Amino acid sequence: MEVLSTLKNVEDVQCPIAILLYEDDQSNLNFLKDLLQDVKLLMSAENFKGKEGSTAKLNLLRDGKVITLYLAGLGPKEKAHIDSFRRATALVVKRAKKDKVQSLFVYAGENLDEKTTQAITEGAILGDYRFDKYKTQKEEEKVEISKVEVYKGDERGIRIGQILANAQRFVRDLVNEPGNVINPITLAEIAQKLAQEHGLECKVYDEKQIQEMGMLALWSVGKGSATPPRFIHLTYKPEGEPKDRVVFVGKGLTFDSGGLNIKTGDYMRTMKMDKAGACTVLGIMKAVAQLKLPVEVHGIIGAAENMPSGTAYRPDDIIRAMNGKTIEIDNTDAEGRVTLADALSYASNLEPSWIIDLATLTGACIVALGEYTAGLFTNDPAFGEELIKVSKRTGERLWMLPMDDKKLREKIKKGDGDVLNSGGRYGGAITAAMFLEEFVKEGIKWVHLDIAGPAYFKEEFDYYSKGATGFGLRTCVEYLMEKYQ
Fold first, then answer.
1. Which of 13, 14, 296, 391 would be a feasible disulfide site paired with 398, CB 3.0-4.6 Å?
2. Are both 293 and 440 inside the same structural domain?
3. What is any one GO biological process for this UniProt entry (predicted)?
4. Gyration radius of the chain's alpha carbons
5. Is 274 part of any known ligand binding site?
């Protein structure tokens, strides 16, 4: 989709028009000029008042020509925020797409700033997304919205919005791919291709090199599969002296059966999404390279399949991770944190200022926060609050959970190794984060984002489609831009 800024008047617009309206302020309708009174009558007939999340389609006949108008509600003006524009645009784009509209004109006011324009751009591109690659369709059924014109849109806002939204779509595509398409080897190949396209450095370590490097945690999780694990290290270096060095780490379970502690059928379904953290890291690296940010950024992924077989790792196994600590296996279905132990150890050796890891780690986090909010855990609360502040602008909900419960921490210390890979059912998201903290060097600021809930939705809403979401990408990249630009 192409998003453009335009100065067209209503008389010059040849495609359907979308107007974003506050619930208590209809001044945006003034753009319609002599169409205004007819539109107000039709709005009244449709009982459209600009409530947040509402849309309406109006057709007017003027001089023998049908003018199609879409309305999208922003809610009360005093409560509306940047994400209101993102959601409203996405909803109207979804509705227009069902009508097989190919171009759309968006009016959201006379004085759009950079961030509002960016949100509108992101909403348009994200709202247009569908994963229908494997649907058999006739050519005439494949209708795309190829162009969106934003009245007086900010050029920089459009550029950034396109980069972030397209990177998020890239993540969605990867996560939605099934396990027979993306496995550890093909995920590494995708990372290498991404590096070639965007001028990144890329190192991929195979199963032998993983063992030689002492990454026996990652190796143990992956050795039950016929497809061996891979360790991926992407690097972006800016022109000139970088302002900082930072690392993003992603959980890369391309499929999770649970291993010998095998999942039931209902819980194994959709486990292609267990690579969402890794795919988000790839999307972050793509966006960072396109934005040419003045900071050195590393993307780290431990990719594996967790499968049951005669070579699979077992409950009671004791494994030594890259940093020398031993892990006793309580449950083979708590495998993501085991792979992340080596990834975080490796990331710490890069001596960054901070690390953010993203992982579909625990069902306990979904129980605690629901499907729409990610859990945030950190060794530096001020760092966590900075991310939460950014997330309120991106619409990606984060909530900080405590890391100071000594009794909970004792639960992962009771085994025969240095740490158990499961602290039990209660407080499971917190004990999982405490486990990860064992593999982050002291002195490095660290945030763990448990995205198990919002990484994958079974129903579409707002700018999300059914399936993978790409959650976390915009917050992480926005944080980089805010901190270093």
1. 391
2. yes
3. proteolysis
4. 24
5. yes
Single out the catalytic residue among 223, 230, 286, 337: 337
DSSP 3-state of 105: strand
CB contact set of 183 (below 8 Å; sequence gap of 6+): 227, 254, 255, 305
Q: Are residues 204 and 59 in the same domain?
A: no
What is the rounded CA–CA span in Å between residue 297 and residue 201? Answer: 11
If asked whether residues 184 and 267 sit together in one domain, one would say yes
Asked if pLDDT for residue 221 goes beyond 80, the answer is yes
How many structural domains compose the chain?
Answer: 2
Q: What residues contact residue 431 under an 8 Å CB cut-off, 6+ apart?
A: 408, 409, 411, 412, 422, 423, 424
**157, 376, 402, 409 from 381: Cα distances, Å:** 30, 10, 9, 18
Domain C-terminal end among 119, 153, 187: 153
Task: Please state, in angstroms and rounded to a whole number, the distance separating the CA atoms of residues 284 and 278.
Answer: 10
251 is in an annotated binding site: yes
Q: Quote the CA–CA distance of 194 and 191 in Å, as a whole number.
A: 5
pLDDT in tens, 95-151: 999 999 999 999 999 989 999 999 999 999 999 999 999 988 766 666 789 999 999
Catalytic residue among 263, 392, 466, 483: 263
8 Å CB contact between 149 and 103: yes
**Spatial contact of 219 and 210, defined as CB atoms under 8 Å apart:** yes
Strand ranges of the sheet holding 147-151, from the earlier edge strand across to the other edge: 2-6, 147-151, 103-107, 17-22, 65-75, 55-62
Q: 353 and 245 in contact (C-beta within 8 Å)?
A: yes
Catalytic residue status for 337? yes
Q: Is residue 230 part of a domain?
A: yes
Nearest CA among 466, 233, 255 for reference residue 346: 233
Q: Is 342 annotated as a binding residue?
A: no
CATH number of domain containing 83: 3.40.220.10
| Residues 149, 262 within the same domain | no
- 310-342 pLDDT tens trace: 999 999 999 999 999 999 999 999 999 999 999
Structural domain span for residue 196: 177-484
pTM, entire model: 0.96
Angle at 96 between CA 94 and CA 99, to 5 degrees: 115
DSSP state for residue 103 in the 8-state scheme: E
